[in-house]
Amino acid sequence: MNFGDGAQRKRLFSDLNDTLIHFGLVILLVLVCLKIFSPFLGVMLWGVILAVVLYPLQQLMAKKMKNHQGYSSTLLVLFGLIIIGVPTFMLGASFSEYAFDKYETWSSDSFSIEPPPASVSEWPVVGSMVSNLWLQASEDLPQFLEKINPQLTEISKGMLASIANTVSSLLKFLGALIIAGIMMAYGQSGSDSIRKILCRLTSPEKGPELHQLSTLTIRSVALGVVGVAFVQSLFLGLGFVWAGIPAAGILAVLSLLFGIAQLPALVITLPVIIYVWATGDTSTTHNVLVTVYLVAAGLSDGFLKPLLLGRGVEVPMPIILLGALGGMFTYGLIGLFLGAVVLALGYQLFMEWVGNPTTEVAEAKQASGE
Known about the structure:
about 85% helix, elongated, single chain
């Protein structure tokens, strides 16, 4: 009897060792795969997000092209590369030419700064400070630059780092767009694979629901957060151009970034409105119309977002919005989509658990006094 017990313990110990070794090898394999794949993880995630967002448009184009998935995906990617790449190349070339011309002017000692207009000193809050610094630069530029050299060095380093990050992000986005085109060309098989994975992780009944929820959440965030921010920045940009604001394009881009970050557009529109009233040479009627337009454009997300965010998704809109904001603050722009998807899935699974039949039976028994 003791011999049998000892043999059984040895067998159990051997099986446990085999299980732990196999489990450890699987964990090691997963970690090595993640390490190898990590340089491409960001681009692949963006590719998946773009593929999910653009897939309905690609399918519409495919129907017009006799269901040629490859041709329609290629055409859509080329169109996106042209729309994004050409203006970016032109802007970069124009900026390079401008910087080269200014460098030549500076090297020839013919560079000079005009004195500030009298209206600058009348700007609210910062008018006198800006006017004094501007005047010092116009009177003795070399001495002024020597005086602020430490600040200029820090600003230059920050600008170069920002330019490098911007170029890197743009190249990654263009690469993600190409990857998204490949994914869309094989969209149905890829969608089936994701559905099978979710079915394996959950259940054959729950997997398709979670797959559809993930897809709709990504499209909802793209439309309700990024889309609304783009529309709002477009309206504000038109208002800045109408009001004759300097650097209207830069302010419009800032409005887009503020909109994606869910920050109020008042942060940008209020200084612009103050500038219009303080320095504008136009009539009072014009200033009033510009003010009303900018205020209305700045508040446009208030009624656009409830209409578009969470549309068609069986998850409350605040859950998606909180997931998008929390994900963005934690993981950057890509977290805008990841956070919304993860929180939506978590909410759906939690509510499914709360509505479990066992829980409902217990509640019914408690209500009946049993």
